[in-house]
Amino acid sequence: MRGTDRILSWFLRKAIIPRTIRLDIPGFIVERVEAESDIRNVLLPEALIGNLERRIVDQAGQEGVQRLYSVGKRFGYRHALISRLPVWEGQSVFQKRKFLSAAHFVIKYIGSVYSSDIREVIYLQAKKLTIRANNFVVCRHNGLGLLLTSGGVAGIWAYAMNDHTVEGVQTACEGRVDAHCEVVCAPSTEIEKEGHKVYHERRLTHLALDKRYRDFNQPRKLEYTETSVQDMINLGVFGYEGGVLSLGGERHFVCGASLVYMLEEEFGGDTAVGRVLRETACEQGRRIGAAAGRRDYRRFVPEYLAACGWGDTLISESARLKLRVNFFPWTKWADTASFAIFKGLVEGMLSELRQKRKKFRAVYGDTKAGWLTLQMS
Fold first, then answer.
1. Shortest CA distance to 147 belongs to which of 245, 225, 240, 44?
2. What is the average pLDDT score of the chain?
3. Which has the higher per-residue pLDDT, 76 or 14?
4. Which of 17, 23, 32, 359 is the most buried if burial means most Cβ atoms within 10 Å?
5. Are 41 and 257 in contact (CB under 8 A)?
6. Cα–Cα dist 90/142, whole Å
7. CB 292 within 8 Å of CB 307
8. Are 145 and 170 in contact, with CB atoms under 8 Å apart?
9. pLDDT surpasses 70 at 59
10. 361-371 pLDDT, tens per residue?
11. Is the pTM of the predicted complex or chain greater than 0.90?
């Protein structure tokens, strides 16, 4: 089978036919929950999240580990909540079979997005989940996996078990030279009995969708570009092999846009760590710009951002280069966000492609038009 045929076959099976994740809408990556409800996602570079984890731990030590785990668990719990995943409450035998069937499907779905293979064991009475995966995103490189592996999976399982005491530990990791990645989730007292160091996070309230979420994030026709993920694959800008999307060797993965906001909420008030967010994103942006080669930044940057689900971008130049992004992913944290990660990512791309350092002085967001618009200058 030719490369393009394999790509289209995979996307048809995993995304287009079941419509679980839509990868063919310019400016938007949406995950279908119900006929009238979508979750806004973005395509993130794996190295961006991996380097953020590593540098925050280097900067803040064990406190950084705890805070990253906390963000991950809250993110996983929120995603399970807004995805309306099933909750186990000790129902009948029939309901148990139905719950287990749904849980196995969710885990396989996680595996199709985040890893090349995944296997799970569930003990409902003990509220225990063990998953093993190969090539799991992020942790395979840095050996941490706090946001998406131990933290993220713990949040999903805590929601499914309706038990905030459920925590997660990563007992094996390819990034630590193990044969596979393994995560164990159970009530923290049970994990501690097995001799594992456990991080705790119980702040799992106020994570539901704001009533404005659907209106601000509904897909709209773009004005400045018409590029989707699928378009970038067909054009050969993004590579594909074994279910992994990449640009110049940089793996990208689909992730709820809430993760970026929640990272900034947790660390934005810390000057030293907050600087890490922007600087790490800027370095990532430079690598993306380098992978783009000699492409015109006025075309490549809007196309890349649209394909990755960030909305519709216009670059304008007069006395100073400015950026306007319509339909930027919105969450209830937008009013207080600094958009440091997005800002750093764009600064890095523009600096590399223009061969001239670019740093935005101001970022301003508003929703007057019925969607979130960012103005950067």
1. 44
2. 90
3. 76
4. 23
5. yes
6. 38
7. no
8. yes
9. yes
10. 889 999 999 99
11. yes
Residue type, position 211, single letter: K
Adjacency order of strands within the sheet including 239-241: 21-25, 28-34, 37-45, 250-256, 244-247, 239-241
Q: Report H helices in the chain.
A: 3-11, 46-82, 93-114, 139-142, 151-161, 188-193, 213-217, 229-234, 258-267, 271-292, 297-307, 340-354
Q: And the tokens for 363?
A: 């970022």
Which residues 6+ apart lie within 8 Å of 95 measured at CB? none
Adjacent-strand bridge partners of 186? 167
DSSP string, 247-289: ETTEEEEEEETHHHHHHHHHHTT-HHHHHHHHHHHHHHHHHHH
Give one DSSP letter per residue of 88-141, joined into a string: --S--HHHHHHHHHHHHHHHHHHHHHH-SEEEEEEETTTTEEEEEEES-TTHHH
pLDDT confidence bin for 12, thresholds 50/70/90: very low
177-232 confidence digits (pLDDT tens) = 999 999 999 999 999 999 999 999 999 999 999 889 999 999 999 999 999 988 98
